[in-house]
């Protein structure tokens, strides 16, 4: 089938690429920025950067 089940759609809402695709589609098609998706992607980027700076060390 070409549609995802309700469970898969709920899981996809937690994946970062879902929000990146929303940003790209809406800006590409002229709808402007989806600020909610932008905030989610920015939050994930800040969180990932913070975790990597805190835990990654060259040995």
Descriptive tags:
59 residues, mainly alpha
Topology:
Blueprint lengths: L5 H7 L3 H13 L6 H21 L4
Helix pairs in contact: 2-3
Report on this model:
69% of the residues lie in helices and 0% in strands. It is an all-alpha fold. The protein is flat. The chain has one domain. The longest helix has 21 residues, at 35-55.
Structural class: mainly alpha
- Major sheet: none
User: What is the H-and-E element order?
Assistant: HHH
Please state the average pLDDT score.
90
The fraction of residues in strands falls at under 5%
The Rg value, from CA coordinates, equals: 15 Å
- Provide a count of the helices: 3
Low-confidence stretches: none
User: Strand tally, please?
Assistant: 0
Shape: flat
Estimated helix fraction: 55-70%
How far apart are the first and last residues' alpha carbons, in Å?
A: 48 Å
Number of domains: 1
């Amino acid at each position: 089938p070409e549609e995802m089940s309700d469970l898969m759609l709920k899981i996809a809402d937690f994946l970062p690429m879902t929000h990146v695709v929303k940003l790209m589609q809406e800006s590409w098609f002229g709808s402007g920025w989806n600020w909610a998706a932008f905030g989610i992607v920015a939050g994930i980027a800040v969180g990932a950067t913070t975790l990597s700076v805190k835990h990654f060390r060259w040995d």
